[in-house]
């Protein structure tokens, strides 16, 4: 990976002529995103994210922390937060922002640690990549939880993006896919194009069924206006 999203984050943090990033998926057109959005404060966050942050407890693992805005808010509230991301540039930006426990790490490589809250926001199910990887991730996340711990995770049901056929059903092209929420993302930044990567959006029922199959209880905490939701997984 070229780490273009991380480069955009670090450019913004260091005022190195940051530009908007362009994202595109295999089911949607290219669109620009202002990188400043990743540096938003609590009062500018969507309500689902605010609720997740309000429900955090104990020591916290922020998975895929990006620019670190969620971690920073929790640190200011006095929590012990460990922030991880696979992007070296993003982690460098986090450290500049004062997030000292930020490290470059794939969550699957995190071992021998336990947390009271594991946070996966901004479509936290995305890191699963494909539907077939859910069990691997959920079992590993379970191994990182203290007794009584919780996973707070958001995602969206993308069924609304597909056209209806004549009988009211949805027409969903499934070439090389196991599930309609499996997307292939591409990011462009400053004339460079990132290597395409898999990113998974999950409807709540599918997440719930997978969680139960892996020994979790689930709770639908809140729903947004765009088929998005916040869920809690716990043991």
From TrEMBL:
One of its GO terms (biological process) is methylation. InterPro entries: Methyltranfer_dom, SAM-dependent_MTases_sf. One of its GO terms (molecular function) is methyltransferase activity. CDD domains: AdoMet_MTases. It comes from the Bacteria. SUPFAM superfamilies: S-adenosyl-L-methionine-dependent methyltransferases. It comes from Myroides indicus. Keywords: Methyltransferase, Transferase. This is Methyltransferase family protein. Gene3D superfamilies: Vaccinia Virus protein VP39. Residues 59-167 form the Methyltransferase domain.
């Amino acid at each position: 990976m070229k780490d273009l999203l991380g480069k955009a984050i670090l450019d913004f943090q260091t005022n190195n002529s940051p530009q908007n990033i362009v994202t595109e998926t295999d089911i949607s057109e290219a669109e620009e995103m202002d990188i400043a959005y990743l540096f938003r404060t609590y009062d500018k966050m969507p309500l689902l994210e605010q609720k997740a942050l309000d429900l955090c407890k104990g020591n916290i693992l922020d998975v895929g922390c990006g620019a670190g805005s969620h971690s920073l808010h929790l640190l200011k509230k006095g929590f012990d937060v460990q922030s991880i991301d696979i992007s070296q540039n993003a982690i460098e930006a986090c450290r500049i922002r004062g997030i000292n426990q930020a490290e470059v790490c794939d969550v699957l490589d995190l071992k021998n640690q336990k947390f009271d809250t594991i946070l996966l926001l901004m479509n936290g199910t995305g890191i699963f990549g494909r539907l077939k990887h859910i069990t691997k991730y959920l079992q590993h996340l379970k191994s990182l939880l203290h007794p009584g711990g919780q996973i707070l995770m958001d995602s969206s049901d993308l069924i609304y993006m597909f056209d209806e056929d004549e009988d009211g059903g949805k027409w969903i092209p499934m070439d090389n896919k196991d599930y309609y929420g499996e997307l292939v993302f591409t990011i462009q930044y400053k004339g460079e194009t990132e290597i395409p990567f898999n990113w998974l959006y999950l409807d709540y029922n599918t997440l719930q069924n997978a969680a139960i199959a892996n020994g979790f209880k689930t709770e639908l905490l809140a729903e947004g206006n765009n088929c998005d939701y916040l869920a809690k997984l716990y043991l």
